[in-house]
Design goal:
about 350 residues; mainly beta; Jelly Rolls; seven-stranded antiparallel beta sheet; six-stranded antiparallel beta sheet; about 40% strand; globular
C-alpha cells in the first residue's frame, strides 16, 4: 500500500511486483545510517569515546547529538562498522554502520542518556500539519539496564533551536522493548500546524551499576511523510557527506595536506581555508566545548613562509570566519617579510581541526 504523501506506482523488474513509487529525498533526516563520522568518534567498540560533560555534549556520528541529563559524566559512544548480510539492516538496505550509545562500564549514575536530532526549521516546514512516520533499526546490549528504549517526535515554535536547550512538545512518544537482536521499529504522529521545527529524541534511564554492555545500537533512521514506513533511503555517499558538511567539516593533520595559503603579518601567518560546503552558521573557536578544535597539537601543522622556509608554530587561533571560509592565525617567534606568501601544511601529528555549525 502506498504511504500517504507518496504518489504513483512502478513495477519491480526483479520480482515483477507492483510497488509504490519511492521519491528521492523522502527521508528528512541526514546521516540516518550513521555512515558519516567526521569528528572521529571511536570505531573500536572495545574502547568507546567518552561523551563530553559540557554543553552541547558530543556527536556519536554527524548530526546525532548525545549527552547525559545535566551533562553528567559516564556516557560513551562509538560507531559500529562491518555489518554483514546476517544483520537485518544490511540485509534490508545494505546498511553497514550504526551508532552505539550507552553507559560507561562500572558507572553507577542513573541519570538519563539522550540522543537528539535537531532539524533546521527550513527542513521542517514541509512536515508541518502532516502525518509523519519514523522508522529505525535498534538492538540493546546484554546489560541494557532499562526495560525500554524510548523515541519521541517533538515540535517547537522557535526557529532553529536545539532540543537540549529549547522548548519543545512531544507529538508522538513510543517505548520499545529491549531486544538483543535487530528490530525495525516505527512511530507515527501528526506535526502540529503551529510548529516551526521538528526534532527527535531517543533516551533511556539506566538503573544500578553498568555492566560491560549497558548500551543500545541504532541505524537506518528515517522520517517521512505518511503513515507507512517505506524502505530506508540509502543516498550516495558523496551526497550524504556534503549534506553533513553543512553542519560540520573536519581537517586532518595528515602529512602533506595543504590547509590553505595566505600572507605573513607581524609574526603571524594568516592562512585562508575555504569550506567545501557553505555552513549553516558561522563557525567559531571554542576549545572548551570542542565546537572548533579537537585534539590539535602544534606538531600537526607547519607553515612555510616565502623567503624564510618552515617556521615553528606557537599557537593556532581564529582570525575571522564566515559561512564560506575561515582564516587561521598561526603565530610564530620567527620573523618574515610583511606580505610574504604563506602555506600551511599538515605534518602528520595526529591533530584534527573540526569546524562545527551544528544547532
Amino acid at each position: 500500500m502506498a504511504a500517504s504523501g507518496q504518489k504513483g506506482m512502478y513495477v519491480n523488474m526483479n520480482s515483477g511486483a507492483v510497488q509504490a513509487y519511492l521519491p528521492p529525498f523522502r527521508n528528512a533526516l541526514i546521516n540516518g545510517d550513521m555512515r558519516i563520522n567526521q569528528r572521529g568518534t571511536s570505531t573500536n567498540l572495545a574502547s568507546l569515546t567518552a561523551v563530553a560533560t559540557t554543553t552541547p555534549g558530543s556527536w556519536v556520528t554527524d548530526r546525532w547529538n548525545v549527552f547525559r541529563q545535566g551533562f553528567a559524566a559516564g556516557a560513551s559512544i562509538g560507531q559500529g562498522t562491518g555489518m554483514v548480510y546476517a544483520d537485518m539492516p544490511f540485509a534490508d538496505a545494505g546498511i553497514a554502520t550504526y551508532g552505539r550509545i550507552g553507559r560507561t562500564a562500572a558507572n553507577a549514575a542513573t541519570t538519563t542518556i539522550y540522543c537528539d536530532y535537531n532539524m533546521e526549521s527550513l527542513d521542517s516546514y514541509r512536515l508541518v500539519g502532516k502525518q509523519v512516520t519514523l522508522s529505525f533499526y535498534y538492538r540493546t546490549g546484554t546489560n541494557f539496564s532499562d526495560n525500554f528504549l524510548t523515541a519521541t517526535l517533538n515540535s517547537g515554535t522557535a526557529t532553529d533551536a536545539a532540543f537540549r536547550s529549547g522548548t519543545f512538545t512531544s507529538f508522538a512518544t513510543t517505548a520499545f522493548a529491549k531486544s538483543s537482536s535487530w528490530v525495525r521499529a516505527t512511530a507515527t504522529g501528526t506535526v502540529p500546524t503551529s510548529a516551526a521545527q521538528v526534532c527527535l529524541r531517543f533516551f533511556y534511564t539506566p538503573v544500578g551499576t553498568a555492566g560491560n554492555a549497558d548500551h543500545f545500537d541504532f541505524t537506518g533512521l528515517q522520517l517521512e511523510l505518511g503513515s507507512v514506513a517505506t524502505p530506508f533511503e540509502v543516498r550516495p555517499y558523496p551526497v550524504e557527506l556534503q549534506m553533513c558538511q553543512r553542519y560540520c567539516e573536519s581537517i586532518p593533520g595528515n602529512y602533506g595536506f595543504v590547509l590553505g595559503v595566505g600572507f605573513w603579518d607581524a609574526g603571524t601567518a594568516r592562512v585562508l581555508y575555504v569550506y567545501k560546503v557553505q555552513k549553516y552558521r558561522v563557525c567559531t573557536i571554542d576549545t572548551s566545548t570542542l565546537n572548533f578544535i579537537n585534539n590539535v597539537n602544534l606538531s600537526s601543522f607547519s607553515v612555510v613562509v616565502v623567503g624564510v622556509g618552515y617556521i615553528p608554530v606557537t599557537s593556532i587561533a581564529q582570525a575571522w570566519s564566515s559561512t564560506l571560509a575561515h582564516q587561521f592565525a598561526f603565530a610564530s617567534s620567527s620573523s618574515g617579510t610583511a606580505g610574504a606568501g604563506t602555506v600551511a601544511l599538515g605534518q602528520g601529528g595526529g591533530g584534527l581541526i573540526i569546524f562545527s555549525a551544528e544547532l
